[in-house]
């Protein structure tokens, strides 16, 4: 579904990605692990068109999307849930969800709205509240729901557990698994490596803008370097 080859992205003269290559098959959950500054968020921003690569190639369903505008990438079937949620605070929950469907003119919008409310019943209860009045966990639900309103085939999730209480983190990841089981492919960036490897089928490990390890999640959980660096084990 998604194929990334030798991706390079720079901030000015600083090369943040130094030839990242990865692939995602349909219906997979693939995790990207790494410490702060490894290039995880930069990778997602390049895939969603928010950053223009200096070099390399990105293809989605066999079509090149390198350098395409973000709204065009959304129309092709890729939606990005950014780090920090970035909901529209002055808009209601329902208005935020409507914004997620702004590229669409099909008849399935109402059905997808009901799907979001089924996945996140709290959003249904708070549909008339402004986003600024929601808790952090509810805002994360809203950010994911807004992305789902674009009817994506590939969902890019950036740090969905950040700043959330453990119980809410568990609920969010149960929902992520449900979204995948309903047919949406997911690329997950997550600091909580143990949780990411629990839900993902495969994973890549980034260090200083390069892929240093990749493989099945079960294999990476047994890798000594991963256990020591990301799982807190000796």
What features would you describe in this structure?
The protein has 234 residues and is α/β, with parallel strands linked by helices. The chain is 37% helix and 26% strand. It has ten helices and ten strands. Strands 6-7-8-3-9-10 form a six-stranded mixed sheet, with helices on both faces. Strands 2-1-4-5 form a four-stranded antiparallel sheet, covered by helices on one side. Strand 1 (2-11) and strand 2 form a beta hairpin.
* Helix-strand string: EEEHEEHEHHHHEHEHEEHH
* Strand elements, count: 10
**CATH C-level label:** Alpha Beta
In the sheet with the most strands, the strands line up as 6-7-8-3-9-10
Measured as a percent range, the helix fraction is: 25-40%
Largest sheet: 6 strands, mixed
* Radius of gyration (Å): 17 Å
SS summary, helix count: 10
CATH fold type: Rossmann fold
What would CATH call the architecture?
A: 3-Layer(aba) Sandwich
Strand content: 25-35%
Secondary-structure content class: alpha/beta
Low-confidence stretches: none
Broad shape: globular
Number of domains: 1
């Amino acid at each position: 579904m998604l194929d990334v080859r030798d991706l390079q992205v720079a901030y000015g003269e600083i090369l943040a990605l130094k030839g990242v290559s990865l692939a995602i098959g349909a219906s997979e959950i693939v995790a990207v692990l790494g410490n702060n500054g490894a290039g995880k968020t930069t990778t997602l921003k390049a895939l969603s068109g928010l950053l223009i690569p200096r070099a390399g190639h990105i293809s989605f369903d066999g079509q090149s999307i390198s350098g395409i505008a973000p709204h065009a990438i959304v129309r092709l079937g890729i939606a990005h849930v950014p780090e920090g949620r970035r909901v529209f605070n002055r808009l209601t929950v329902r208005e935020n969800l409507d914004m997620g469907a702004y590229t669409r003119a099909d008849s399935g919008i109402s059905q997808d709205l009901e799907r979001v409310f089924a996945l996140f019943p709290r959003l249904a209860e708070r549909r008339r509240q402004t986003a600024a009045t929601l808790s952090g966990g509810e805002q994360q639900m809203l950010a994911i729901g807004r992305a789902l309103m674009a009817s994506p085939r590939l969902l890019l999730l950036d740090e969905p557990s950040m700043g959330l209480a453990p119980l809410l983190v568990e609920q969010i990841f149960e929902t992520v698994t449900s979204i995948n089981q309903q047919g949406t492919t997911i690329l997950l960036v997550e600091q909580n490596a143990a949780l990411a490897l629990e839900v993902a089928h495969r994973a890549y490990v980034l260090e200083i803008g390069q892929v240093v390890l990749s493989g099945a999640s079960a294999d990476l959980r047994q890798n000594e370097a991963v256990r020591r660096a990301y799982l807190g084990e000796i």
